[in-house]
Every structure is written in structure tokens, then in C-alpha cells.
Amino acid sequence: MVGCCGQALVEAGLAPSTSHLRNLFTTFASKAALGSGGTRHTTESPGPRGTFTVPRRLTRSATDDAADPGLLTIGALAKATSIPVPTLRTWERRYRSPEPTRKPSGHRLYPVSLVARLRKVALLLDRGHRPGEILPLTSSELDSLLALSGTAGERLESPARTMTGSIEPQGDALDEMMHAVKDLDRDALIGVLRRMWIRLGPLPFLQRCAATLMEQVGAAWQAGTLEIRHEHFATACLSDFLHEVREAFDRQARGPRVVAAMLPGDTHEGGLLMASVILALRGCRLVYLGLGTPVEEIATAARDRAARAVAISVSVTMPRTHSAKAVNALRAALPRRIALWVGGAGAPKPPRGVERFESLEQLDARLVGWSESMSAR
After folding, report:
1. Terminus-to-terminus CA distance in the chain, angstroms?
2. Number of Cα atoms under 13 Å in the Cβ half of residue 35
3. Which of 14, 179, 186, 346 could form a disulfide with 318 if both were Cys (CB 3.0 to 4.6 A apart)?
4. Fold of 42-59+66-149
């Protein structure tokens, strides 16, 4: 929604903050769960999708409060995962995950096997995901997200970096991308994009890497050092990559539906692709229409799919009078219950009933809590 391919992406980014990483403790090995008075039989207690509960005891010994080699206290779990005790308690209260069982004394107990899962969760938090989005996921879904970001084999370094906490890409990464564009080397360009996605996290990547790349490509085209084929190549590679990273969020989205589209006649899709990543990451179920959809068809899609909002990206190449007329027509065609959001370098002054976003960060801030509140209705 904000920015677009070429010159339209100039306004896309805000400088992110720097976060430093920390190492985890070594891995715990799973042990047989035996009670002090003999063999202890267990059964798994079912929980909500993605939550893990401790095996519940069918029999108890007189020394039930004694240390169990197959279970951890909350302090031991916190030490093993570098996730603070207060954070674990907050997750349990808000998301019912991780869900413990209790000793007769009331103290929490967790299975040793939970350490590996929480390390995956913490690694994804470090990559910009939020607890409410990943704690409900199954282990296989966590693995899929880790594989997508190329971090499946990494050791955890920081359990709680926020979506906007990151470091700015170095000049050598931009140089690598520009050389790849000049050489039409797709593998090299996608490789750098993937590396910067992992390094920065979602929002800073979109603001500081994707937007900067397309700004530089557009400037080089204007200066005559790159040709149209180079700009089209860079746009296609970035579009493919953004579709790839969004797919994982699309699969896990459980929030309200949002229709994402460009106005008729607008051919620069980059800004909409970037905004769609943010929408999907925040749990919105996207109906992605992309380029060339008539206003009446956008409105029909929103009604047919019971969408809560329509998101429109407008590039700088669109005449303001044309975009303003189209936005007004779309607002009139939509039921009042469906929000209409516009953004991008070419977005017109919003009429009544239309909300305009000046940046991806502003869009992300608007979405925080919105998806959950809409889903609850």
C-alpha cells in the first residue's frame, strides 16, 4: 500500500532501531519420566491447537513434590530457553501456551521436550513475529516458518526482538543487489533479499531494503545507467520474493478478511505487495486482487467474501484527479461496515469514510489489535 516499484517506493521506509543478540543455554536431553515410588503411567491431556500440556499423572506417590527428571520448573524452563519467567506466565495467561500442570504445592511443571519448541518460538520472535501469531502453531508449522526464513538450523540468539527492532542494511548489501540487477542474476538477487529478510525482520526489511533497492533502481534508470529491462527484472524478483515470504503468513492467518487491490490503470504493484506482507503477518486473511481490477469488481469481491476492509495502494504515477475519483467511487460502492484504506506515494486526500496511511509503520500500528478485535465480532 505504501510506496511502489521504482520512484514510488522512495517514501516507504523509516529508520529502525538496533537490537543485539544473546546466546542460549545448551540443549536438554529428554529423560524417562519415573516417579520416586515406581513406574509412573501417563496420558497426554488434550489442549488447544498449538498448545502443549504436561502429561497428567494417573497415580501419585507420597513424594510427588520431589524432583522429576522428565519435568522442569518454570525457572529451569526460563533458563533453558532464555525466556524470562514473567514472559512465560504472561503467555500462559493470554494464550494458554505453554500450559503447565501443577505440583500439590501449586508450582508449575513443564516437560523437558518443551524446551526445543520454545526455542523455535523465540527464534521466530527474533525474526519479527509476535507471540499471539506463533504460539498457537503446531511444531510442524513452526518448522515451516523457520525453514522459510532460512533459520531452521540456527541457534537461538534473542527471544524477544520486536518487529521494528533491527539494524540498517550495510552498503555492501545494496551494492550486491545492484550488481545482481545489472547482471540480471536472479539467484544472486534473491539470495541477498533472503539474507536481509533474516537479518532485519519483516518491517525493517520492507522499509530499509525493499524500498531502498527499488528507489536506487529507479534512480539508475533515470540516470541512464540501467535500462527498462533491469527495472522490470528487479521488480519481478522482488515481487516473487514477497509472494514467497507472505505465503507462510497466509497459511496461518485466522483474522478478518481484507481485499488488497490496485486502482484501474495503476501498473506499479510493489507497494501493495509490501503492504500485503504486513497485513498477512498481522493475521489478516487476504483476498489479493492485484492489478487491473475495476472498482465495481473490488467492491463485489469485498461483499462476497465478507471482508472487513479494502486496502488500496496508489503509486506516484497515478494522476491525483483520477485516483481521487476512483477512491470516491469505491467508497460509494462499498457497504459502510467495510473500511477503505489507501496508501502510497500517489494516494489522494482521503474523503469521508476513507483512512489514509503515510507509511508501512503507520499501517502496522493500525493493525495491532485490529485483527483480533475484528475476529472477535
Report:
1. 26
2. 17
3. 346
4. Multidrug-efflux Transporter Regulator; Chain: A; Domain 2 (1.10.1660)
Q: Exposed, middle or buried by CB within 10 Å (0-12, 13-18, 19+), for 185? A: middle
Long-range contact pairs involving 139-145 (C-beta distance under 8 Å, separation at least 24): 141/50, 141/251, 141/252, 142/117, 144/248, 144/251, 145/248, 145/252
Which residues belong to CATH 3.40.50.280 in the chain? 6-18+167-375
- 252 touches 269 (CB < 8 A): no
The answer to pTM > 0.70 is no
Answer CATH for 6-18+167-375 from 3.40.718.10, 3.40.50.150, 3.40.50.300, 3.40.50.280: 3.40.50.280
CATH 1.10.1660.10 location in the chain: 42-59+66-149
Q: How far apart are CA 329 and CA 342, in angstroms?
A: 13
**β-strand pairing of 71-72 with 108-111:** antiparallel
Q: What's the whole-number average pLDDT of the chain?
A: 77
Position 191, amino acid = G
The 10s digit of each residue's pLDDT in 125-184 is 877 777 888 888 887 778 777 776 555 444 443 333 333 333 444 578 899 999 999 999
Residue reference for cell 533474516:
198
